Amino acid sequence: MASSHQPKDFDVFLSFRGEDTRRGFVSHLHKALTQRCIRTFIDDNLHRGENISDELLKTIENSSASIIVFSKNYASSSWCLDELSKIMKCSKKVLPVFYQVDPSEVRKQTGDFGNELTELEKKIEDKTKVQRWRDALSRAASISGWDEKNRAGSTYLGALGKNVK
C-alpha cells in the first residue's frame, strides 16, 4: 500500500522572473536557504518556448513549500504565471516576496504590474487560463509575505526553515 506521505524532493520551489531578480535578489535568497540546509529548487536554465514542462510541474508538486518572488516583470511571463497557478492549485505553504513591487498592485493587478499582465493577456487566446492567472495572483498576494517595507528577511527565512522541514 502506497503512503500518502511520501518524502518531498525539495523543501522549497523558487518562482521568479529571471530578468528581474536572478543575478541579485534570487541568487542571494537561494544561497541563504541552502546555507540553512533547506533543499531549494531553482531553475537555472533559460527557457525557450512558451509552455511550462511537465517535469517542472512535478517539481512544484514535489516541493514542500514555494517562495514566489513577485517583481515588476513577473506578470509579463506566461511561464511564471503557469508556475504560480500550479503552486496555488497545490495548496501548500506559499510565501510571497514582493521585490520592488507593491503587494496591492499584485493583488489588484494594477499599476505597472497590472499593465504587464494586460499586455500579455492580449496575446493569449485562452481566457480561462488568463482568469486562472488573475485568481492565482490575487490569492497569492493576499498571503502575508515579505516586502521592502517589511525588512524582516532573516525572521522570514528562519520561519521558513522551521515550516518546511
From TrEMBL:
Domain of life: Eukaryota
A biological process from GO: signal transduction
Positions of the TIR domain: 8-141
UniProt entry keywords in alphabetical sequence: Hydrolase, NAD
GO molecular function terms noted in the UniProt entry: NAD+ nucleosidase activity, cyclic ADP-ribose generating
PROSITE patterns, A to Z: TIR (PS50104)
Name of protein: ADP-ribosyl cyclase/cyclic ADP-ribose hydrolase
